[in-house]
Records
---
Amino acid sequence: MVKIKATNLSKKFNERLIFKDVRFELQSRQSLVVTGQNGSGKTTLIRIISGLLSPTEGKLVFIKDNQEIELQQIFAFIGLVGPYLQLYNNLTAMENLVFFSKIRGLGTNKSKILELTKQMGLAGRELDYVKNYSSGMIQRLKFVFALLHEPPILLVDEPTSNLDEKGVEIVYGLLNKQMEDKILIVATNNPEESRFGQTHIHVGL
Amino acid sequence: MVKRTFMLVYNSLIVFQKDVQLEFRTRFSINAIILFAITTLTAISFSVGPAKLDITILSALLWIILFFSAMTGLSHIFVREEEQQTADTLRLVTSPLAVFLGKWLFNVVLLFALEIIIVPLFFILMNTSGGNSNLLLMVLFLGSLGLSTVSTIIAAIISQASARGALFAVLAFPISLPIIITSIHGTRLALEGNSVSTGFSDLQILISFFIVILTVSILTFEFIWKSN
């Protein structure tokens, strides 16, 4: 059982306050949707939760089986999809995924990679360079990257950005599946995606 | 503890392997570093002509070529990750130390590879012999270790800044100065044919500097890598 507990999170860039006093508590089978206007700090909050940014104030704790997870180990528990995360353009999709799989300690893991690429509708394109992928295909590939290690916490910033109708359907299926037994956090402005949250936070001052 | 150390070494090697793969595909650093070194070497060789230069000048010229070649090519290692927005992806999957060690190893190997080409070429074009080759190899090895360590940590710092090109040489020069001065002195002793024991104090300085700069780099890298 994994839990996240955020207490009074606030973030300032220089002297500009982005948001303050954000608090929530989530455990497996729970989900959170973060909404807010452009520039309100949705992405900043997702980056803080993923460990890519530090909050100016407040505390974020990850707990597994009643034990706090060490800061250095958090990346093993998180999968993140976001517009600011890029894969290596000069590697093929397969080379990218094998690299991330190995560095996560999962070995080459080609069968899992092929299973996920098939699920995301990228079967047969694994050996193409990422630089030759369309923006929608890259978005699908980012989901494969985020799900490779079956993370107990999935963070998704703008989940359906650049996706076609079929891609949106696949992603919504994935998000539903994640909600069944894991933690899901979605940042979105799409009203249709609000249904993925049992808890909602509206950021902005 | 043992498992963590093993994972750190393994992950560093995976980062190194990925960078080698990317480098062979794009040749960002290799092209920059080798072209700079060969152009400088050729220009010096033509300027000098058949004249035989003093050993002190030769030693300085060799290290000037190596230093500026390193400055030209070794900064790409972190700048590339930031420019292509893959740095955050890397931050998400492994520890800062594994990233640093992987990239440091890449820069060390790249500088050694450059030296394998440049140093023999330098001696041929400058019409000089290696003197005490054991001492020369030790100075080159330790000097390059220090230079690539400084380059790696400075590359990590400047990758977070906007005026990257100018900043790299400006920051790296004062920090590298002890390595360059000691390496030039050690190289001069080697070219004069002195024994290893004569150059031992230079080797000691190079080893000490390398240990200090590597330790400082390891201790500060997490802060630099996560400074945003």
Note: The interface with chain B takes residues 50-54, 72, 75, 78, 80, 84-91, 95, 99-100, 102-105, 145 of chain A (CB under 8 Å).
---
Amino acid sequence: MIPNLERSASLGGATAEANADSAVVAFENASVAFGQREIWSGANFKLTGGEFVGLIGPNGTGKTTLLRVLLGQVPLATGRVKVLGGPPGRGNPAIGYVPQRRSLAADLAVRGYDLVLLGLVGHKWGFGPASAAERRAVADALESVGASAYADQPVGLLSGGEQQRLLIAQALLTNPKLLLLDEPLASLDLKSQHEIVHLVETIRVERQMAVILVAHDLNPLLEMLDGIVFILNGKVVAGTLDEVVRSDLLSQLYETHVHVHVTSDGHRFVVGA
Amino acid sequence: MPHDPFSGPTWDVLQDLREIFAYGFMQNAFMAGTIVAIMGGAIGYFVVLRRLAFATEALSHGGFAGATGAVLVHQDVFLGLLAFTSFAGILMGLLGDKLRGRDVAIGATLAFSLALGSLFLTVSTKLAGEAVNILFGNILAISPSDVRFVIFFACVSLLAVGVMYRPLLFASLDPEIAEARGLPVRGLGVAFMLLLGFAVATAVQVVGVLLIFALLILPAATAQQLSARPAHAIGYAVLIGVMCVWLGLVIGFYLPYPPSFFITTLTFLSYLVTRQLGPGRVARGRPLATSGLLVAGSNDAVRL
């Protein structure tokens, strides 16, 4: 019924039998607990590289916690996890991360450019002007997210979508193999949501990164995703779209009637979730 | 007949400066005031960025208990102040995120510290004159040994901020990403609060515990209205701080009122002017074009 509670799911589809060492992300029977309270369990999935995966679930189910496991900030209670062939560790430059935020303070009087630049030089002690190579890398990253035009303005004055683009640019500076985006669509209008999803898809293809994007609504992402990871009722359920986006399964997971509607041109959207 | 400097300036700038610097206490005041203003601009930039204005105020007021306590037990006022603000700073730094939004708890500690100071005041008889100096500053009465302390601790703070600059900026702007990138965000926070303790203790020598805002926050807050580039903003903050201290000292030399009043007035005015006319008003929804002033006219003023 639920596809992968017992077996490991590979979300890319094509290269299903990659071993855990070459996988970008590999969870095996993983669970996380804070003290006595289990947050989620049963995480069993692999990303082999280049996938676009949605991490979906209601608020407070531990989606951010899953990202923090990958960042080496939260240990597993049981099971195993490998990130880019090794155990998760702090400060891995091969992982780009855009945390969830309530948007930057409106009076934050620092240019977007400087915020992005810190993604490259922020871990270096001391001070000094950016080198020509660093400036070029920042300009490239800004260009690839389409933020060059407003990078000179204080970030506090920018819209939510513009701020998201800057933060994505910052995350791209270290040429990550894995990009983690925590609720990048929250508090964006529909048009900006659409733009950010398409931007992430374009960058993913260009740079051959795996992307895990956290969202609580599946619909803005459905056309783009290769795989989905649900966290519902303390269980992590992963699969390809065909495996997971089904009315019967989603209704069971959400414990309410959910209908997956398929349009005449093959697009899916989820109603009632 | 030689000119009596206390009858007023000659308006011959060189002559006036010669007269001012003929006094040892003015030399001391300028030395201490300048280094504190430089440090205040740099540290203050991060104070504003990290939203620690109220915590700074609390540290400073808390220092009153430390300073009066030191007099009570026959210790140096500056060292008593420094011990208190450093200790309280580290404590606040360790509490870190738990301090966010705890205005009432901070305020309660602040009130208690002041109350403690007032108790020490009544217990000790020789504190009465000292108390006003601690509260409102008396840079003209600063002793040469205190000048050395002030210069030492201000330089240590400046040097440390220089070393931590990029990681501290990263951790201040975006602690979550900085942490994910492996930076010791918590350690940086504690270290910064210790430096803030040093900065408060030294700045109190110039403007007193009650007027700490004048040197540690206002120049930096003003500078953030002028430039959105961190390095430039820090430069402006230092410049504004130093200018206000120098001008305040000169005015205070000729008028029978304390320099801390003039220094605070000048930093307050510069804040008011940029707040009203500077690019900052854009953030509050009014168009820049009508203000008629793009501050400094430089290309790093906020562009729109």
Note: Chain B has 14 helices and no strands.
